[in-house]
Design a protein that fits this description.
six-stranded antiparallel β-sheet; 21% strand; Beta-lactamase; alpha+beta; 20 helices; 22 strands
């Protein structure tokens, strides 16, 4: 990397270490994200599992295993056998009809676009990367960068040092990539770097004269009845390629089935070869070894292996499409796993459907009495937050358990508004903020309002929950606001929210408690339904100097995926800046040093003092209508 780029990247890490997340990026944020729209069309045939040779009992046990795993955090799962949808499960409030952030699964879609462009004679894997950008010369370009080909980008063997960290600091990613160096000879080793895929996206936009989504619409999306998806762009308007794509589980499953059929698809006009079959075979076969001895030991053209029996499109935190050709099986998953690529969902899937699992039949099975009904019951009961209150309380109203606590909470805390001490740690997940450059604001006040039944005065959507809930408003500088509706009746509230101009769909549930000092405690689970992110907020209310004097609140924030996972990802990006890199662990002194500095940012806490006027209670009631 050139010395200017190095200084910019170091500045990003310095800001991260001191918690200055508002000014990390070297370019302004621009809102582009569309409103999340729920889909109504599936476009795939539906079948009972037994008709395709799969036991409903095995499918049910698979979903139960996913649900019981404490680290899996599945959102939506689809299973396709012989091209038919045999099971779909959604962990409410997540929905398979809502587009989900794909992370690195986006890379595989770039590979499909590249294969189509190869067939059209626009590119070849052997082309040198620098030949596509003669208008971006470098004063001292690395000889190793001159050797990088598109094949090196496809297989993650460019060893380029300009990584995701640099993308936060730089505005012109193409120039920065080409001005950078390589940590080794191109092709010498596998070094995972999302900027390789970004450069493929930039090349494709250059040769086609249009963004990836526009290029793929008539060639892939329209024939497959996939609505044109949203794909985040870099500051220069190129779709990010390596991440930033939003797909529904239906879209993902269709792409997996397309790969299983070697690029062939049944369109409204008959069967069409949408992606060259030879490209699908090469892209999904192992081209290089990753150094991993597990499921992801092999890497193709932006595709990972799935053990010895298949391949997968893979995104961090559990976004994946698993294709098992010998079993005629496709499994599409969105999740919020704490792990990165080889997560519990992959291991559970391999246990039930992998090479060591009981073979699947290719003939219809005789249904077991009650098995399909039991499967439907299991799928209908899936809840994302059931561990929050315990398995036994999944259907039990918190009000039935809390009893008088609601009356005490609402009487004691309703309408209170607090001024927060300076610091970061707003209610927006940091990982989401950094990925999209939509950095979180620092709230200055927080207020609470308890609502019971229909009398809240809030405008509701048809069929929307109207039971007991808490409404929380975070207010920042000027017009900056973020509000939460959390169900206190055992049901999750789903609502929309705009963050710096970007619309998001959220779900929230809360519970009341008393700590060991009999202080009221409010615990909120807030999930961003299009992402793997869940925000955990714990509010502890206490007083000093007698009743109703110096009323205070302590807010503690937590994340899922957790702080350790995010820290490890940050350190992995930092590793790739070096010549050889090193495997960092929790015991590594450098890791420990970074952990001490970063943990307060990932697990922040804020103290607040109640804002009160001479009118006291009257002022509190006035503030209770702030939302």
């Amino acid at each position: 990397m050139d010395w200017i780029g190095q200084m910019k990247t170091l500045d990003v890490f310095r800001k991260l270490m001191r918690g200055d997340v508002r000014h990390m990026a070297g370019y302004p944020f621009v809102s582009r994200k569309p409103d999340p729209r729920q889909r109504t069309e599936i476009g795939l045939s539906v079948s009972a599992p037994e008709k395709t040779g799969v036991s409903s009992l095995r499918v049910r046990q698979y979903f139960q295993a996913l649900d019981a795993c404490p680290d899996a955090h599945p959102h939506s799962v689809w299973i396709l056998r012989s091209g038919k949808l045999i099971a779909r499960g959604n962990w409410f409030p997540y929905s398979d009809r809502i587009p989900h952030m794909m992370f690195s699964l986006s890379k595989s879609v770039v590979s499909l676009a590249f294969g189509i462009a190869c067939q059209e004679g626009l590119v070849t894997p052997e082309d040198r990367l620098v030949s596509y950008f003669p208008q971006k010369p470098a004063l001292f370009r690395s000889p190793r960068m001159e050797k990088v080909t598109l094949w090196h980008l496809l297989t993650m063997t460019s060893t380029a040092t300009f990584s995701e960290a640099g993308s936060v600091a730089e505005k012109d990613w193409v120039r920065a990539f080409l001005a950078g160096d390589c940590s080794g000879e191109p092709g010498s080793r596998f070094v995972y770097n999302s900027m390789n895929t970004y450069m493929l996206s930039a090349v494709l936009q250059k040769v086609t004269g249009m963004p990836l989504t526009e290029y793929l619409t008539p060639r892939l999306f329209e024939p497959m009845e996939i609505p044109v998806p949203f794909w985040e762009t870099c500051p220069m308007g190129v779709e990010k390629g390596g991440w930033g794509l939003y797909l529904t589980v239906s879209d993902m499953a269709k792409l997996g089935q397309l790969l299983l059929q070697k690029g062939m698809w049944e369109t409204s006009e008959g069967k069409k070869q949408l992606v060259p079959s030879q490209w699908v075979e090469e892209a999904c076969s192992t081209q290089v070894l990753t150094g991993d001895e597990g499921i992801t030991a092999g890497y193709g053209y932006q595709f990972w292996s799935f053990g010895k029996e298949g391949f997968q499109m893979n995104g961090v935190f559990g976004q994946r499409v698993i294709v098992l050709p010998d079993k005629d099986l496709v499994i599409a998953v969105t999740a919020g796993s704490r792990e990165s690529f080889t997560d519990p969902i992959a291991r559970i899937t391999q246990e039930f459907f992998g090479e060591k699992a009981e073979p699947l039949s290719f003939r219809p099975l005789k249904p077991i009495p009650g098995a399909q009904r039991a499967l439907r019951k299991t799928l209908d009961s899936l809840r994302a937050f059931h561990r929050y209150e315990g398995e036994e309380s999944r259907r039990l109203s918190l009000w039935e358990k809390a009893g008088k606590d609601f009356r005490e909470f609402s009487k004691e805390l309703d309408g209170r508004r607090y001024r927060l001490e300076p610091g970061e740690g707003g209610p927006v997940p940091l990982v989401l903020a950094c990925l999209t450059n939509n950095f979180l604001f620092s709230p200055k006040t927080v207020s609470f309002r308890f609502v019971s039944g229909e009398g809240s005065g809030e405008k509701r959507e048809p069929g929307e929950k109207t039971g007991k809930e808490v409404q929380i408003l975070f207010a920042g500088q000027g017009e900056e606001k973020f509000w939460i509706r959390a169900g206190l009746d055992g049901e999750t509230r789903v609502f929309s929210q705009t963050i710096n101009g970007d619309p998001f769909l959220l779900g929230a549930m809360a519970r009341m408690a008393r700590d060991e000092e009999d202080r009221p405690v409010l615990k909120i689970q807030l999930c961003f339904l299009e992402t793997p992110c869940v925000r955990e907020i714990k509010c502890v209310f206490y007083q000093h100097g007698g009743e109703r004097k110096n009323s205070r609140v302590l807010l503690r924030f937590g994340e899922t995926p957790d702080a350790l996972t995010v820290e490890s990802m940050v350190l992995a990006v930092m590793e790739r800046q070096g010549e050889n890199g090193r495997n960092l662990s929790e015991k590594d002194p450098f890791f420990q040093k970074v952990h001490v500095r970063v943990e307060p940012l990932f697990r922040p806490k804020r103290k607040g003092t109640e804002l009160r006027s001479l009118a006291g209670t009257v002022e509190r009631r006035k503030n209770s209508n702030i939302m």
